Amino acid sequence: MSAYRSVELISNSSGKRANLPARFIAEGSYFELPGETGGSQRLYLQAEACRNSSDAYCQRSYAITGDLDVFQTRLKCYAEVRNDSTTGYAGQALQGLCQDPHSRSYSFTISR
Fold this sequence. Notes:
- The protein is mostly beta strands and 112 residues long.
- It is built from no helices and nine strands.
- It has one domain.
- A hairpin with a 5-residue loop joins β8 (94-99) and β9 (105-111).
């Protein structure tokens, strides 16, 4: 995940874009991004399925989730991360959706 360094957000209604630098912090399993008013904000990588399963055949899946302050509003974001044993997510951009408090949607892409 440390190869991913950029988050692009696009308003699906207006087309407005924001590009934010990102840094993956492996010890905490999160992406750190700059905040609009200084400081930092985070998108967390967490196990979604098979979190506490001892079944070796359970296909673990992951999600990137978190809240971002962008476009002068608070966005709740979610992206599924494939866990394909043959290709994984190597070389792929990670895509997801965000939603503001008024249910407007935003696309987001985490890329290298």
